Amino acid sequence: MRAALLVLMAGLMLALSGLAALADPSPAIDTSRELVVATKVAPPFAMKGPDGTWTGISIDLWQRVAETLHLRYRLVEEPTVDALIDGTAAGKYDAAVAALTITGPRAEIIDFSQPFYHTGLGIAVSLTGGARWMVILNTILSFGFLQAVGALVGLALLVGILIWLFERRRNEHFGGARGIGTSIWWSAEAMTQASTGVRAPITLAGRTLAILWMAVSIIAIAVFTAGVTSALTTRTLQGLVNNASDLASVRVGAISDSSSVDYLTGQRIKFRGYPSAEAGLKALKDGQIDAFVYDKPLLAWHVLQEYSSTMDVLDIVFDPQNYGIALPLGSPLRKDIDVAVLDSTRSDWWKQTLFRYLGER
Questions:
Q1: Domain 136-238 has what CATH class?
Q2: CATH classification number, 30-116+324-358, choose in 3.40.1160.10, 3.40.190.10, 2.40.440.10, 3.10.350.10
């Protein structure tokens, strides 16, 4: 009887331990091991000082997470985002922190923590007048401008043909083989209020049409001139690029290994690839491109630090993105890091951190 009771108690203990394992299936974090955490320079999310000390939004967040979870770690620098992703996917790194955008292709080979920053792509444009002639040329060659010119020319041709039909038998100046050319020339002359000596119509129908055409042409030319002037003034003041849709008609630059390339490729927008934001912004300054596309907070940081008087970041955000901490697939750190990230980003400490680096409240 006693032996049976002991067997029953042992079975009960095994069952309870099994239930506990089901309730918390994630393996425990080994806090004794030093983690290898990769990063890359991506101001203001990851910045390396002259003494080798790392700071920035992502770095500060990781330090807070590590302190919360009592993790030991060392930072390793990589030159590109692809190196961060590939190294984490291969298990070379226990985590990667920088300005890593959470995307579908990346989520297939690595895990991401909860998003800690919501952003999107931005556009930097030049404030100098180097592209002013390009603005004027683009406006003149635009479909709307050509359509307006075509309408005026079409009206002049129509009026010229009607004048020829009315005058060809009674007005020697509009008759004969050359009469239709003279009629069209008179129509253009009347439209532009010029005077080249071409005789006027003499028939009642011709003169009636001439009076109507003169009145209509004055209005048409005035509207056309006002529209062109307004378009040129507006585009010259605003520049070539005012929103994402304008990128299709200008020279665009982007960082070769960034998520900006995915967006531009998906929208079939031609672009020039650059190895870094510094290289792309220098090309923009030198007039080699008309717009540079990159993650907006990183773009704003670079422009503010180096090009505040010559460039501007448009007040638009497109292609929404989220930043997260990259982890190997199935990492035992993920659950605890998720909780620590959520707690940190909902605290006053996070608000102060964003304000310190970005001025965001």
A1: mainly alpha
A2: 3.40.190.10
CATH number given to 125-130+241-320:
3.40.190.10
Those residues whose C-beta lies under 8 Å from the C-beta of residue 74, and which sit 6 or more positions away, are 34, 35, 36, 37
Q: Does the predicted TM-score (pTM) go above 0.85?
A: no
Q: What is the pLDDT of residues 298-328, one digit of tens each?
A: 898 999 888 988 888 998 999 999 999 999 9
Q: 348-358 and 334-345 are packed helices; what angle lies between their axes, rounded to 10 degrees? A: 80
3-class DSSP state of 335: helix
Whether residue 67 contacts residue 28, with contact meaning beta carbons closer than 8 Å, is answered with: no
- Domain ranges across the chain: 30-116+324-358, 125-130+241-320, 136-238
d(CA 349, CA 333): 22
- C-alpha distances (whole Å) from 117 to each of 159, 266, 312, 332 are 64, 24, 22, 23
pLDDT in tens, 175-201: 766 777 777 777 777 777 766 566 778
CA torsion angle 350 355 358 359 (round to 10): 150
CA distance 294 to 247: 13
Strand pairing category for 117-126 and 72-77: unpaired
